[in-house]
């Protein structure tokens, strides 16, 4: 009897040991996957710092505001400039847009049909010039990661236009707690737009569980660029605006640049094309610069945006001015640098979205209200955009004194996810005389919003959305640190 008991004990010990070994191997595999995909090498061509070149550059803005009669008005220009550039294109159009769909979420406000208008413009252009090469790059969020088949994709492809959904798998993971598992189990699972059975967080069509598995990675091609060749040369638009119906009421900013700097933007899109097995046109041009009296412009992508932004803030001197307009502000080094600049005597103004609206859904104010509390406690002047269902979606920072100015503007929010080599992002940096038109126009946009000039009620006092909750502050810090966030 004792012999059988010993045999049974040994078998149980062997099973427990076997299970322990399996669990240990799975844990090691999960941790290895999470760590590797957080720090793995970036695909070639990302984290790009372009050459600083003299170039013609123009500032554009979409302003949404409350007028003197209390009615909401929209003074928007960016989408019209996109359509104009498409019309001017001769042989090449390369468009890279994050949100490019008709969804409006739960919003009941009237919206423009930006996605279909842009689709129609591209199709009409291809019909008028059948030899023109048109490439549309976008983020897989628009098909809910393959869970639906967007009608405008079908229309574009039927017209002979190449639609490239970005392959996000080569990017580093901003949410390693989930992605460490996803890269092992699910990255090659594919999807099926005809098998949806779960509620869609963005629209009405049903989606699969695989769509959610992709969504929880919280990574994106967040760029918003357009490059075309015109009779006057190459032109590029870099913006914070999306051709997305639900975003059509948002306030946004943009820059349009000409010459070799525009070609630099095209080069950065070639990197996305290679990463996604797409073919983006190559352009070979001799090096040249615009008139020396023009500002200098530089293309920045991914962490290069962070590096130059931190340098802009840290080199600001007493008496200089920094104006920041931002949809999401949460990155810790930038927050600390802003406070340190204020303590050095730099004149700061920070204009933030109150993070209360998201396509008809109510948000809890994280992260902006928590960061604003920190800035306000340090004495930094903070105001909120006076949003009424739309978002204050601008992303720009300007430093200047009486003589010189520097502007960084584009798709990137100042969050770890956006500027620490996780998302794909594109910004332009402009340096030059403070009297240049691009800086005057940017200043006019900011001053109007900050001071509610010209009977445009665009901002409200800090106290309107002040939130001193310690609990929410801890949540913000955890979300920023862990990557378990959508900002």
From TrEMBL:
GO terms for biological process: lipid catabolic process; phosphorus metabolic process. InterPro entries: PLD-like_dom (IPR025202), PLD_domain (IPR051406), PLipase_D/transphosphatidylase (IPR001736). GO terms for molecular function: phospholipase D activity; RNA endonuclease activity producing 5'-phosphomonoesters, hydrolytic mechanism. The keyword Cell inner membrane does not apply. The chain crosses the membrane at residues 21-39. Pfam families: PLDc_2 (PF13091). Keywords: Hydrolase, Lipid degradation, Lipid metabolism, Membrane, Transmembrane, Transmembrane helix. Its EC number is 3.1.4.4. It comes from the Bacteria. It catalyses: a 1,2-diacyl-sn-glycero-3-phosphocholine + H2O = a 1,2-diacyl-sn-glycero-3-phosphate + choline + H(+). Gene3D superfamilies: Endonuclease Chain A. The keyword Lyase does not apply. Belongs to the phospholipase D family. This is phospholipase D. It comes from Acinetobacter bouvetii.
